[in-house]
Amino acid sequence: MKTLTCLFFILFLFFTPRLFSQQQIEDLENLRLLDWQPRSMLVVKETKIMQPKFPVIDIHNHLRRHEFTEQYLEEMDKAGVMMCVSLDARSEDDFYLEHIERLHGVSKDRFLLFFRPDFSRIDEPNFGENEARRLEEAVRSGGISGLKIRKGLGLEDRDKTGELLKVDDPRIDPIWAKCAELGIPVIIHVSDPKAFHTPLDRFNERLHELAERPEWSFYGPQFPTKEEILAARNRVIARHPNTIFIATHMANLPEELGTVSMWLEKYPNMYVDINARINELGRQPYTARRFMIRWQDRILFGTDTPPDAEAYRVHYRFLETDDEYFDSTPAHKQQGFWMIYGLYLPDEVLEKIYNKNALKLLNMRKQ
Q1: CA pair distance 138, 185, nearest whole angstrom
Q2: What is the pLDDT of residues 290-304, one digit of tens each?
């Protein structure tokens, strides 16, 4: 038997080169990981979902490109999206005033805006109180519906001494407290996918993406660990129990839904959204479905993709159908070489995720 195996191997080595031309062999040798685009041979059911079962609120988007505002609204109409939240109302240089004027000039009812603090002022005396006052004025004017924290906090933002600004820096506390006082939610993005915080080596499952965007790699001694950043966020959530925190991107740990579940149990003021993470949720459909049914009152819909009807429809297919092994890339961008599976969520769960949970939080605002 051993002799036959050796003979087969020798014959394979002898004849295999003849199966390919020299050009084909060179092409294969020169094929880069970045250029590899495998096409699945699997033939399975494909369901077209043109409109969601219930009206949708996209709680997480970026609409700073004002020249496309009318187009955004057209795409929302095509896809059954009743409201879309822009997280680009920056305090810096008073951009939020222009953002309010441009979006609300097209539709005040369909576009909501979240205020983004200016952490470049962190060293100013009474930074927290002053920024909280700006936030309050923006909310009282009717133009702002919430607060947005971008991932620079805890990763990149620094004070004048060069020290990294931590998520739980006490100078920010007045802003968290003001959100509770105003009854507005905080969408907080800290850290990034697990792969972005691990070495750039052959074991990194998002290597192709990081090779294209190396600035998204946060691994090395110059950065805190992902665990440290998330722990600081959770300390803030615990310290401000009356403030609602939407821990975006499925609490930035969709790879570990068991841990996210423990956080939701521990922090009743924590919510999560699914935006830009259906690629992670869809590769673990059994676990994700159980998670979303269990926490159906604490999950919100979002995309992180400028309004596009086809991108929305990929999300609907993911949430509403039992389709197997399909590409999530049109919903956002390529975030892995794997395919995803639909969750076929019950209607009562869908309606909460699509709009009821968002409406509950958005209607908490105190006049």
Answers
A1: 14
A2: 999 999 999 999 999
